[in-house]
Design brief:
Blueprint lengths: L1 H7 L3 E2 H11 L8 H13 L3 E7 L5 E7 L1 H31 L1
Antiparallel strand pairs: 1-3, 2-3
Helix pairs in contact: 1-2
Amino acid sequence: MLILQTLRWGTQHGYGISQAIRAGSNEILQVETGSLYPALHRLEKRGWIKSEWKTSANKQRAKYYRLTPAGKKHLASEQSRWAQLVDAMAAVMQSRENEA
């Protein structure tokens, strides 16, 4: 979900995606290369992202990823499920606080 959200902001290469997640989480979430690239391959296989080779700002060849319409739809669904999960967890936490 975080990768898809990052790509919602625009096309990005792998390192840029990991940096966006890191910066967006105030340095709390760090996506390692060994996790990121297999996840990108799975997302591409499912049709949620597309990739193409381009030259990066530092003149190196890099694979850039973008969100597909199917990826946008899946992200919206996941965001809805995430919101439900957060609400459910908050409700459980609140009920425990009220008992104490």
